[in-house]
């Protein structure tokens, strides 16, 4: 005899009732399972395969080279999470599932792939050791996340795509909120392929740009700048910002650079920028600033990530950030949240 449907439908979504004090912990534990499903959705590019309409598990299994039984279980779980919806015997994308489609602005596929990539995922298990010893096992082995990516091309591709996707909102907000009138030359220190700088240059045609990053980035950066039609206004300089920074720009941009380093290395970078600046140059850093109180904030989550994948990398509050700049011979002139991102703009000039 079949049980009444209510015996199942009334059960809680967690192992315990929502009012139970253990519910928050169970939600985190189940989040690991759920993220594994989401990562598989991204890796198999199910959003791309479903972009033109619903498909059956059999069709999807053939398309992505998967076993139909296991894929059906995955699709069922993703539908329960709200990323897919059942349409008869087929499955279709929901609005939130469509955010994993690669070819849309702000696609979340690259964020998921970067976070769930095996090396990146395993790095997070090193937080315990980092807390105990002050040393990240991942960073000790690879030097940093960038050292790992250099030797893992697929992970490097996904990370580059994630950085470009993530940087678009920040770059657009920067062009809206920061006054660039009077600025003619900008050096993007550790600028990767040049996404932030190229967005700025699109908005301000009078700006000439320089991207400084390691030689390993050169080919990708030069192609990116060529695709944007900026090779006549923007050059790529292969180099290490610990050694030197191109001299004489009106503005030096450091987007998510300082947080990669502990105090000594962060000050080294900032001093190199200070040495390259003219008396009237400005430095503009984009980084997360931690709030003064303990409340839910992206920065606290990111700080755990930094502990796992960098040696010394960390998020800082405004006072800590200001102290770094002071030590490097720079004076803060402006701090402003970069809405709608979790970043802040920190502007500084050379101490006279």
Task: Please explain how this structure is put together.
- The protein is of the alpha/beta class.
- The protein has 2 domains: about 20-100, Winged helix-like DNA-binding domain superfamily/Winged helix DNA-binding domain (Arc Repressor Mutant, subunit A), CATH 1.10.10; about 115-350, Rossmann fold (3-Layer(aba) Sandwich), CATH 3.40.50.
- About 45% of the residues lie in helices and about 15% in strands.
- The chain is built from 16 helices and 10 strands.
- It has helices at about 5-10, 25-45, 45-50, 55-65, 70-80, 110-115, 120-125, 125-135, 135-140, 145-150, 155-175, 195-205, 220-225, 265-275, 300-310, 320-325; strands at about 85, 90-95, 185-190, 210-215, 235-240, 250-255, 280-290, 315, 330-335, 345-350.
- Strands 3, 4, 5, 6, 7, 8, 9 and 10 form an 8-stranded mixed β-sheet that branches. Strands 1-2 form a two-stranded antiparallel ribbon.
- α15 (about 300-310) links the parallel β7 and β8.
- The longest helix is centred in the middle third of the chain and has 25 residues, at about 155-175.
- The radius of gyration is 23 Å and the shape is globular.
- The termini are far apart.
- The model has no long low-confidence stretch (mean pLDDT about 95).
- GO terms for molecular function: O-methyltransferase activity; protein dimerization activity.
- Keywords: Methyltransferase, S-adenosyl-L-methionine, Transferase.
